[in-house]
User: Fold these one by one.
Assistant:
Number 1:
Amino acid sequence: MINEMIDMRSDTITQPTQAMREAMAQAPVGDDVYGEDPTVNLLQKKVAELLGKPAALFVPSGVMSNQLAIKVHTQPGDEVIVEKDSHIFNYETSGPSILSSVQLHPLIGERGVLRAEQLAPAVRPGTYYMMRTSLICLENTHNRAGGAIYPLDEIERIRNFSKALGLKLHLDGARLWNASVASGISPKTYAQHFDTVSVCFSKGLGAPVGSALVGPDDTIERARKFRKIFGGGMRQAGIIAAGALYALEHHVERLSEDHLKAKAFAERIAGNPRLMIDMRTVQTNMVVFDITRTGKSTDEVLAILQSKNVILSDANYTSLRAVTHLNVSLEQVKRAAEIVAETF
Ligand SMILES: *Cc1c(COP(=O)(O)O)cnc(C)c1O
């Protein structure tokens, strides 16, 4: 077993368990474009309840979910405030400019967190020759900030600010489940402050495919129309929705195990002075650490580790990212940390 690959690139590489596959195989299905898939309908009802919103829409990916939110909350020419390291700004391939004809206005946060005070100067005045600010997007947990949790009191302050100005607030909650399990704050408590929330089932929850956008009935109805336009109208999607339902029932509480694994990994890495790590960011299932002091590039370090059967990913130009998940054990994670710490 000593030569097996320990793949900690991402929690998206997780394989459906046997029990999840069985639940998927047995799911009753129908044509969801006609609204007739009972499993999709059940999932949407359940996710809406969990997040305390009137409606939910099952979509193929987290990117589509975020892009639908931007589409329904903006008009062409508007501006959307995001954090500079956010997924929407970095990994969605200019989707907002292509699909919604809006401009993003990135602000620099601290470990992914924007403060309410930063927002006022970023909101455009209502002059006719300036773009209209219509939406603010936050991310919880924050991916590039190493899975850091957004503090609830800051979310509340941002909500008060956005409400006073009539701006919409969207949460990219791809890993809201991790934030909730780690903080003890329910998904509903986080979600109440947002107009729409996107959640993923295909990350730490271990389902093969799928995300959901939740929000008010009329907003989600408009998102359903755009989902079709974006090519995301699915037919017997209950097969994959069943994986998401199974994950919600069986794989949420266990995220705390992934968080313990990430802590163990980070603590071992922190023992090596060449690997710099901000332990404050190690709050959920990710560990981002800086490798500048190794004197090597991220590509070089990744290649060396891969030759030793440890697969990590690039976080940014000088940092690597390790993600814990359902398919790596505590023992494997500790072994991977040992290899990383000893190699440099
Ligand atoms: C993974 C991720 C998404 C969306 O990802 P898909 O690969 O499209 O499902 C969105 N936001 C964050 C923060 C993510 O980590």
Number 2:
Amino acid sequence: MKYYSTRKSTAVVDLKTAVTKGLADDNGLFMPERIESFDSAFFKNIANLSFQDIAFEVAKKFFSDDVELHSLKELVYDAINFDCPVVPVNGNIYSLELFHGPTLAFKDVGARFMARLLGYFLEKSEKTVHVLVATSGDTGSAVANGFLGVEGIHVHVLYPKGKVSDIQESQFTTLGQNITAIEIDGNFDDCQRLVKTAFLDAEINKQLTLTSANSINVARFLPQAFYYFNAYARLQGVLKEQNKEMVIAVPSGNFGNLTAGLFAKRMGLPVARFIAANNNNDIVYNYLKTAKYEPRASVQTIANAMDVGDPSNFVRIIDLYNNNFEAISEHIVGYRYSDDEIKSVIKHVFDEFAYLLDPHGACGYEALNQYLNNNQLGVFLETAHPAKFTETVEAVVGKGNVPLPLKLAEFMKGEKLSIPMSKQFDDFKAYLKELN
Ligand SMILES: *Cc1c(COP(=O)(O)O)cnc(C)c1O
């Protein structure tokens, strides 16, 4: 399968190139040139398949031209080593819990898959590939844990000193093996500048193979389609019995998750409607109301993984629908929530239904609560475990009501290992030149 750029001013590339480069030469995002549908036999049998089986069937539709089947199977089953269960919350509203992976957020799915796919492509090469990531917190942990132990790849995580939480820091500084954490005496922008400068440095690139594990990578966003099919498989019985259609609410920031859902629908998944749930960064909400896309600087909210003012994957949605606003707004409805609204939803759902939402999932839950009619059943994506936002959530539901999951506690016990570094590029360059 070939991949084209959303800007369409550069040649198509193969999967290996799309995954290693991340971004197309014309700065567009890669799109697969075909989206194949499943036949009715697949949907007839889907309830009998495990999440891993489903993931493999979906992966085959995209990757079987480029990856030998037995290797694809191995890498899917290895990447998807945790469940994404569907849990009833209230009436016809269900939570698709995407936080059972190593860093307790949905980004584990894409990061683990991408790491293994990259590992597969590099298997035959002698040279180590160096992944450089700048992080303000969560991306670093998903990427570091995703790539942990993958042969032939070394990950270097740059993070701003004193500006990430202890829990976040522990998730990428305690791993060892092929993961090195670098604590930069500066802010997130300094970390990002160092990484970008390294990618442009001729001398470094001659010596080392560098790549990024950016969230716009096709190998990170396409696997997110896996769990939409899983949600349907787990609910098919209820949907049929109650003669209802499925609506899915997606807490959205960069819109990779929602785009993957739209791909699943294009592959035949029966989703009546998607809801894009935003916080105060309501650019897509406004677009769905006015047909005008007006990006602007992001504002800070308590659902901070959705604080995005110009969602990168929006161009993928435009491309998927040939910029047909009517078609887009027929498939996607927008909702928007302020911090106060998010807090009151978390409190209400905890008090009434004993379910603990995180600030992102809360937007998805409430959108369903407002949107659903009696013929519909709603699923919201619970994108992270509430304990990743303990301070915010405890302030709402009371101290002691947000238990720390074992996985996070384990990270906190590990020994913090990181290399202190200035924000001068010369220092980072000297560090890179020691590598091979
Ligand atoms: C990244 C993230 C989001 C936003 O997902 P997009 O694919 O960027 O729209 C939502 N919730 C959490 C917890 C996240 O980490």
Number 3:
Amino acid sequence: MNFGTKAIHAGVEPDPTTGAIMTPIYQTSTYVQESPGKHKGYEYARTQNPTRDVLQNNLAALENGKHGICYASGLAATDAILKLFRPGDEIIASNDLYGGTYRIMVRVFQEFGLKFRFVDLSDASALEEAITPNTKMVWIETPTNPLLRLVDIAAVANITKPGGIQLVVDNTFASPYLQNPLDLGADIVVHSATKYLGGHSDTVMGAIVLNDDETAQKLAFIQNACGAVPGPQDCFLVLRGIKTLHVRMQRHCENAQKIAEYLQQHPKVSAVHYPGLPTHHGHDLAKRQMRGFGGMLSFELVGDRMDEATRVMESFEVFSLAESLGGVESLCTHPASMTHASIPADERHKNGLKDTLIRLSVGIEDADDLIQDLAQAIG
Ligand SMILES: *Cc1c(COP(=O)(O)O)cnc(C)c1O
């Protein structure tokens, strides 16, 4: 089956009692048992919910994986993965991670004795040097947030596989429509379903997809034992969002490409970070490991005045100034003061994150209107 057909049909069956084509929202906390222990496979809604089951199976199909497991948020999914490890275990992560991922690693799990090392993984050989006998996991994001750097998933998997090191890929920015990390050798894919999967800025959710039965069992155990489960209404919304994922992504990519090309020739813009530009350092890699270049881009303004970035962001009429991404509407953020404010300033600057950097989540409006908005805002 091809992607669009899977998005709409995989794991989804008409409701057996009524024939309803849409998966019902099983808004229930418990299930009646015929006699003690004799039930239909559902006992308590933290443990199992039919709406969630359908979503989990659908997500597994989209990522070409065996198991899908959903959590209350992307970070709850990250939390579950990090709970697979024990004090003394070392985790290597890319150095321009989503701010919240960096925060849970350093402020929560480091306190519990996990060791983290942040490395520039756009150069896969830097990874080899960072690995020690205690390295248990490598965590990458590609494209990265907010600089749209690319990490070669297959090259990293070649390094992690022989040592039995788990490779986790945060696939939120690409979505399964554009990139399937499991096919490239990753062990675990994690998503903030809040973003492109849901696609309509109306739900917070996280998901994990993987093939290994034993790890899947541990993650499902954590899902139930720790209890960060998504509600059935949210599962319904993400399922509905996924039905148009392929169509939305096509338009996100088209619009972002046009905007990147527009910004690149703008005299007040000093840099544009978008993998769809031939000048982007990861352009060839993106062509190899992705099926399109995505809807995320960032750009820097000439000079290095934070207040100039503020002025531009206050002037937008179509773009909304808001955190998050991946919805049908275009958003802009200022990483230095918003999403990445929890990363210390010198750490930010060291990683190439300038104070004039503006990140765009390009929506699926008409590209001409978005370009006109950028033109009047930048001035
Ligand atoms: C938003 C995001 C997360 C966290 O997901 P939540 O659903 O907000 O908890 C993780 N990784 C990336 C790349 C994200 O954009």
Number 4:
Amino acid sequence: MRCRQQLVLLTLAAVVAAVAAQVPSLGPCPEMKTMDEFNVNKYLGRWFQAERYFSLFEFAAKCVISNYTDSGDGRYLVVNKHVNALSGLKSVIQGDLHVMGRQDESKMTISFTSVPVPMDLPYWVLGTDYDNYAVVWSCSNFGLFSTRNAWILTRAPNASLEVMQNAYSVVDRNGISRAYFIRTDQRNCGESSRH
Ligand SMILES: *[C@@H]1O[C@H](CO)[C@@H](O)[C@H](O)[C@H]1NC(C)=O
Ligand SMILES: *[C@@H]1O[C@H](CO)[C@@H](O)[C@H](O)[C@H]1NC(C)=O
């Protein structure tokens, strides 16, 4: 019986993982400390993805870059580009970053409008110095489970160890497991995928 329950739980976890294409964890989203005085304007611009949580959504994605811009009409636009490391195909995904509460609140949401199933996901900046690194967290509750996603973004395609350590200290401070992080390949991306 116990074994069957575990099987059911495992199956559920797999379903949730497939639906959300993210790391499923037992239990609700953990508490996270977001930033007290976030400045979205300083956050805008181009970021290279240095590391990410394993997710099917981004499976085999390399050369991942995001560009956040102020649309001028109160919206922040997101353009994500990546190259599929297996097929070599380039993809562009567009969306909106929404500031929900106060302007200095780093709890935002991101919605991708150019994908078959539009998604609205939490986008919480846990820490950034704006010039070198940012740590972004996204967690959604699904009953018994939650799906967790995290990214380390850097302004440089190949950030120094010192910059990465500053990012890791944000990761550690929030009790985020480093076990699921994988490095994003930013080598041989070519200038054409940099724009
Ligand atoms: C990245 O930087 C490290 C040292 O800062 C260097 O050893 C390495 O070759 C660089 N890699 C690339 C792809 O530029
Ligand atoms: C980001 O997007 C804006 C608006 O489309 C564009 O003007 C800018 O050149 C882009 N920046 C980078 C670094 O790609």
